[in-house]
Amino acid sequence: MTLDELLGQLFDFSNYGQLLVLVQNSIIAAAVLGIVGGLIGVFVMQRDMAFAVHGISELSFAGAAGALLLGANVVAGSLVGSLIAAAIIGLLGARARDRNSIIGVLMPFGLGLGLLFLALYPGRSGNKFGLLTGQIISVNIPQLGLLIGISILVLAVLLFIWRPLTFDSLDSEVAAARGVPTRGLSFTFMVLLGLTVAVSVQIIGALLVLALLVTPAAAALRLSSSPVLVPVLSMLFGLVSAVGGILLAIGGSLPISPYITTISFLIYVVARIIGTAKSRTRRRRGGSPAGRVPSTPIMVGE
């Protein structure tokens, strides 16, 4: 394959306007998922649960594949798988060591079960592949309504428990000593995470869901530690990654997930470079030898 043929497969914007109309539902879904994933991703990072996202996605994939095999609603199957995984991790994985062990057991089981269901499925191979890597034209009106409804529920509950969940995420022992129901919060958060993973699988696929639920928040944390700015940046990065990936994928013949993951990764790389530069600048300004006055005065708030 020549370079021109490769670029033509990646980017072909002829008939772009007509194709854009066909994927309106997917664009709306991607925007909603980018915002929700970016917001909940902040807590995923604070609670060191990036591994849990991948574990839940594998059982979500198994549920979706089982529903596909049985001719049932794929989103419903994905929800069942995600909630089962979230409940198991939330109930049994109170400590980080136990949680990682449980996730390590669930991941190969969920992936193997999902692959078994796909091997037994007699339908189109595109449906099988889409569960792993996402599909650009895969969201109909009922599915979009379900996705928006679940996303609104996740956002509402997350905002309601925001302060105690933040306290528990930063210092669970002190939060428990202050009377915060840490176990109940952990379980609730796992359920919210399971719901978010389930609705994300249909757009970006089970294997690459981390690009919406981890990478935007990781990028935001490289740029700021503000409790207000970090969630805003994370939602913005998630929105740009998801919608930008859809808009680029319209012109190509590849699955949507490579476009979303590439944009998300590039945002993280730029954020890391900026964050590293800012850290070095702060160290130079504050690293003068004791007893000497810095040659450049440090302004308050810098």
CATH fold-level topology: ABC transporter involved in vitamin B12 uptake, BtuC
Low-confidence stretches: 288-302
Order of helices and strands: HHHHHHHHHHHHHHH
In what range is the share of β-strand residues?
under 5%
The tally of domains stands at 1
State the name of the first-level CATH class. Mainly Alpha
Q: Tell me, what's the shape?
A: globular
> How big is the Rg?
21 Å
Task: Output the number of helix runs.
Answer: 15
User: What's the multimeric state?
Assistant: single chain
Q: What structural class do the secondary elements suggest? A: mainly alpha
Q: How far apart are the termini? A: 52 Å
State the helicity in percent bands: over 70%
Explained architecture:
With 302 residues, this protein is mainly alpha-helical. The protein has one domain: ABC transporter involved in vitamin B12 uptake, BtuC (Orthogonal Bundle), CATH 1.10.3470. It has 15 helices and no strands. It has helices at residues 3-10, 16-22, 24-46, 50-70, 74-92, 96-120, 125-133, 141-160, 162-170, 172-177, 182-204, 210-213, 215-223, 229-249, 257-286. Helix 5 (74-92) runs antiparallel to helix 6 (96-120). The longest helix is centred in the last third of the chain and has 30 residues, at 257-286. It is globular, with a radius of gyration of 21 Å. The N and C termini lie far apart (52 Å). Residues 288-302 have low confidence and may be disordered.
